């Protein structure tokens, strides 16, 4: 694991008359991995009032990210079979969702190894559909609370993310709303950065998490040094 990320919360926009830039996200993964639950948990926790579900499982909302108003659209998708490596059939829903989106969440369940195996072909399909643009991708291992039924180890998810050059996070949608929020927030920021002309260089694999007491150890160390120095000067 490399550096951690501390992510600021997304606030609901109170001004619907300001112009906003579209950010389009697609959530992909196998059957039963919790894609819809993640989307609904994020939208219902972070905002006051109702989110707007459109036809075809498209959810939309105005949000603020780093002081900028964005028109966020999240596309839910049907489950993908592990063995399906060619998603380019004419009229295929997955291909249309991939072509449409600016950023992607690739979700698998730690209790279903076949859902983990579907991530690599999905990622390859994204790169095939967007050959000239390094669209941000985050790999999400869901159902982290079901450790008794685990089939995919955390190290396997990290290794896959490292191989593909993406971010990775293992979460429990049912137990930790903040982790779900962190995933969507970070993906919004990555898309916004790309749209603002940020470079498309390959990112280092990172686990997205909130540091526990980020400055506490440093504060304790400084306090001890200051106390020690005071005692020496007094003597």
Automatic annotation (TrEMBL):
PROSITE patterns: RAB, RAS. It catalyses: GTP + H2O = GDP + phosphate + H(+). GO terms for molecular function: G protein activity; GTP binding. The keyword Flavoprotein does not apply. Residues 206-216, 226-235 have a biased composition (Polar residues). Its EC number is 3.6.5.2. Residues 195-235 are annotated as: Disordered. It holds the Pfam family Ras. Keywords: GTP-binding, Hydrolase, Nucleotide-binding. Belongs to the small GTPase superfamily. Ras family. NCBIfam families: small_GTP. This is Ras-like protein family member 11B. It comes from Pleurodeles waltl (Iberian ribbed newt).
């Amino acid at each position: 694991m490399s550096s951690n990320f501390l992510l600021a919360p997304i606030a609901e926009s109170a001004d619907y008359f300001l112009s906003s830039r579209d950010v389009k996200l697609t959530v992909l993964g196998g059957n039963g991995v919790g894609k819809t639950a993640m989307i609904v948990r994020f939208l219902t926790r972070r905002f006051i009032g109702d989110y707007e579900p459109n036809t075809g499982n498209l959810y939309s909302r105005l949000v603020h990210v780093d002081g900028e108003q964005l028109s966020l659209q999240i596309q839910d998708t049907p489950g993908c079979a592990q063995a399906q490596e060619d998603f380019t059939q004419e009229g295929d829903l997955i291909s249309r969702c991939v072509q449409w989106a600016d950023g992607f969440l690739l979700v698998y369940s730690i209790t279903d190894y076949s859902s983990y195996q579907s991530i690599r072909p999905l990622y390859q399909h994204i790169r095939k559909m967007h050959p000239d643009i390094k669209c941000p991708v985050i790999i999400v291992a869901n159902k982290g609370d079901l450790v008794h039924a685990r089939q995919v180890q955390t190290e396997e998810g990290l290794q896959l993310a490292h191989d593909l050059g993406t971010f990775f996070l293992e979460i429990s949608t049912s137990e930790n709303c903040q982790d779900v929020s962190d995933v969507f927030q970070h993906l919004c920021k990555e898309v916004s950065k790309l749209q603002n002309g940020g470079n498309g260089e390959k990112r280092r694999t990172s686990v997205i998490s909130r540091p526990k007491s980020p400055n506490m150890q440093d504060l304790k160390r400084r306090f001890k040094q200051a106390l020690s120095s005071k005692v020496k000067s007094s003597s």
